[in-house]
Structure formats: C-alpha cells, structure tokens
C-alpha cells in the first residue's frame, strides 16, 4: 500500500509539472511573438498588426493570471481570513483595464489612418502575410495545448469522484454528501455567531414526516462542476487565444486582399478597417469579463440569485422559520457564494431542528458558506415587547451604518 501511494504521488507531481511546463511554453511563445509583431508592424506600417500584437499581449496576461492566481488563491492568511481567492478577479480586472487602454491607443491610430491615408509598405507585403500566418500557427498550437489541459483536468476530476464513490459507505449510496468538493467553510473565522458550513460528515437531513431528504445527484454534480478555479482560469485563457486566432486570420486575409488588388483605391482602407474589426472583437470579449470581475469585487449578489425571492422562499419552505432579516448574499469569487442571515425561531430546541434544513436549503441554491444568527422571541412577542419585524439584536445607531 505504501509503495502504491508513493507511486501515485509521484505521478501526480509529474502531471502538475508537465502542465506548468506546457503553460509556460505557451506564455513564452505569446510574449515573444508580441514583440515580433510590434517590430514588424512598425516596419510594414500596419495598424492591423499592431492590433494583433495588442491581442497577443492580452493572451499573455490571461495566461499569467491563469498560472499565478491559482497558486495565490490557495495560500492561507491570518490577516485575510478568506485567503487570496479573489486574486483571479483582481488580476482579470487589471488585465482588462490595461487591454482597454491599449485598444484606445490603436483606435486613435486607425482613425488617423482612415483620415490621412498611409499605405502599407507594398515591398514588405510578404512580411505582412508571413507574420499573420506565424501568429495563426502559434495560436493554433496554444489552443491544442490549452485544450489538452482542459481535457486532463476534467478526466482527473472524474477519476477523483469515482475514487470517492468507491470509499463511500453502502448506506449512503442513494444520497449525495452535501457540499462535497469545496472546503470554504472549514476555513471560516471562529467568531461568527453560528456558522453552518458543510463538512464531509454531513448527513441527509430528515424532514418532519420522517422521510429522508436527498439532493438530486445530477443537479449537485452540475453545481460542483464549476468549482475548480484552475479550470475556470484555463478556460478563460483558451477563449483569449481562440479570439486572437481569429485576429490572425483577419491579418492574413487583409494581406492577401492588398496583394490581390494593389491598384484599387479602397485597398488603402483595408488595414485600418481590419484593425478596427479586431479592436471590436477585443472590446466585445473584454467588457463582459471586466463587468464580471467588477461585480465580484463589489460583493454583489450572483446574477442567477434573486435575493428577495430567496429570502421569501426560505420562510415559506422551511417549517419553523418565523422570519428572516439582515439577509445578505454575495460572491467571494466566481464560484464561491456567501450568505448570512438573522433567522427567527420560537426557541433553541426548535432552532436546532430547523438548522439542518436551513443549511440544506442554501446548499440546493449553490450557497455553501452560510452564517446564521438565531433569534428566539416567543416570550417577547407574547408580552408585546418586540415587533414581529424588529431585530432583537439590532446594533446601536452609531454602529448600524458600519454593518
């Protein structure tokens, strides 16, 4: 057994090193060709090649984020209690802002070329086309490498799940362990009032009628499928390179058009128009990423979650929950969602029966880290000292603005 375990660890280390090496190779190729395109664009007087160079730079930024943010996001920190899981979003935002500023520079140059025509150097037209072809070849090579990493990550995850299933107890075959695959709650700070995170010891909750409530396996697998931050980064880099490959195709087509119809009056507009077309592709791809990163950093609720509706359904679907207030839902990162709430119950014994159902409710909504503050108000309401919508543990006026 010891020998088998040792061999497995060596294989895992080898795969990790191989993946890093392949990503590093793609990064070196893209950065190197970025400088090549800058020089060739200056020699040929082509704005389209400059635009493709900027696109190649964005690929390099995406690859750097994919490699660095995964390592940083796994680091523990006593000061940052959630760790560095937002490194991906911060890096993506910096990359997008830099890319948009460079796009503006290229836009100015393209407009100037449309107003004051400056033809492409015809005697260097072969270099124009060759640069586009080499750029396309590098992008296709990068796509093959990144596609292989995405496929490897998927198959490795499947094998991990199979291994997990083999070690599960027979009595739990028909149930899904809630929260499997994400350990965010295990690292929560200890000063929360009541922290209902998941654990690998979670059991299917039991309803009032005594029937066991199981979570649908297919829906749970879909939720767990997107939890791998590394795979999300690789997929983002893959889409970057795919977009750049289309830009290289535009450069090649523009060069061939200039060679085919050199005497046409409109041919002088091909190069700046091609650059504007590539810029539009970059902007269309970048703005959604910038918006997504900004919304996460602003701690907004995920787009697929209606907070008011979720709060209403929590009261309606979980027996024993009298009211919910101070209800907050926000994204820690792209796949990690946090929720906190004040939940009102009659007494402690009733709350302990309700707590497991509340946790399961949030799990089914894809929220795997919840902090719940219980309130027990039966005597106060009977005596009329507490309003039904009033928070019992409300902060003072001086600190309410900071909560």
Automatic annotation (TrEMBL):
Domain Cation efflux protein cytoplasmic: 312-375
TM region(s), chain numbering: 21-44, 50-70, 90-110, 125-146, 241-261, 273-290
Keywords: Membrane, Transmembrane, Transmembrane helix, Transport, Zinc
Presence of the UniProt keyword Cell division in the record: no
Subcellular location: Membrane
Pfam families, alphabetized: Cation_efflux, ZT_dimer
Entry-linked Gene3D superfamilies: Cation efflux protein transmembrane domain
GO annotation, cellular component aspect: membrane
GO biological process: detoxification of zinc ion; intracellular zinc ion homeostasis
Signal peptide: none
Domain (Cation efflux protein transmembrane): residue spans on this chain: 27-298
Ranges annotated as biased composition (Basic and acidic residues): 210-219
Keyword Transmembrane helix included in the entry's annotation: yes
GO MF term set: zinc ion transmembrane transporter activity
Descriptive protein name: Uncharacterized protein
Organism of this sequence: Rotaria sordida
Lineage of source species: Eukaryota, Metazoa, Spiralia, Gnathifera, Rotifera
């Amino acid at each position: 057994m010891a020998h088998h375990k040792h061999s497995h660890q060596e294989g895992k280390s080898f795969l990790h090193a191989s993946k890093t090496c392949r990503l590093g190779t793609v990064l070196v190729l893209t950065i190197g060709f970025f400088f090549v395109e800058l020089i060739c664009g200056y020699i040929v007087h082509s704005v389209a090649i400059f635009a493709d160079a900027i696109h190649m730079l964005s690929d390099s930024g995406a690859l750097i984020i994919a490699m660095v943010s995964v390592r940083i996001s796994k680091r523990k920190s006593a000061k940052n209690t959630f760790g560095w899981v937002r490194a991906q979003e911060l890096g993506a935002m910096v990359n997008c802002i830099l890319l948009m500023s460079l796009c503006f520079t290229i836009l100015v140059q393209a407009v100037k070329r449309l107003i004051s025509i400056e033809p492409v150097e015809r005697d260097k037209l072969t270099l124009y086309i060759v640069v586009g072809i080499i750029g396309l070849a590098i992008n296709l090579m990068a796509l093959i490498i990144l596609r292989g990493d995405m496929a490897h990550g998927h198959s490795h995850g499947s094998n991990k799940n199979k291994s997990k299933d083999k070690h599960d107890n027979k009595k739990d075959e028909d149930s899904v362990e809630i929260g499997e695959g994400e350990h965010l709650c295990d690292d929560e700070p200890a000063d929360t009032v009541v922290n209902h995170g998941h654990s690998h010891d979670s059991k299917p909750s039991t309803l009032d009628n005594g029937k066991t409530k199981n979570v649908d396996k297919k829906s749970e697998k879909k939720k767990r499928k997107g939890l791998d931050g590394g795979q999300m980064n690789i997929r983002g880099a893959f889409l970057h390179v795919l977009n750049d490959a289309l830009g290289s195709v535009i450069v090649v087509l523009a060069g061939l058009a200039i060679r085919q119809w050199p005497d046409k009056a409109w041919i002088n507009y091909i190069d700046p128009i091609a650059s504007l077309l590539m810029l539009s592709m970059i902007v269309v791809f970048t703005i959604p990423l910038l918006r997504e990163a900004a919304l996460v950093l602003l701690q907004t609720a995920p787009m697929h979650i209606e907070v008011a509706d979720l709060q209403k359904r929590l009261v309606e679907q979980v027996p024993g929950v009298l009211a919910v207030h101070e209800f907050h839902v926000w994204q820690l990162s792209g796949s990690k969602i946090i929720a906190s709430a004040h939940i009102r119950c009659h007494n402690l014994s009733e709350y302990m029966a309700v707590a497991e159902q509340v946790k399961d409710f949030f799990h089914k909504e894809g929220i795997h880290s919840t902090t719940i503050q219980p309130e027990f108000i039966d005597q106060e309401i009977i005596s009329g000292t507490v309003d039904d919508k009033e928070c019992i543990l409300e902060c003072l006026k001086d600190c309410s603005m900071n909560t």
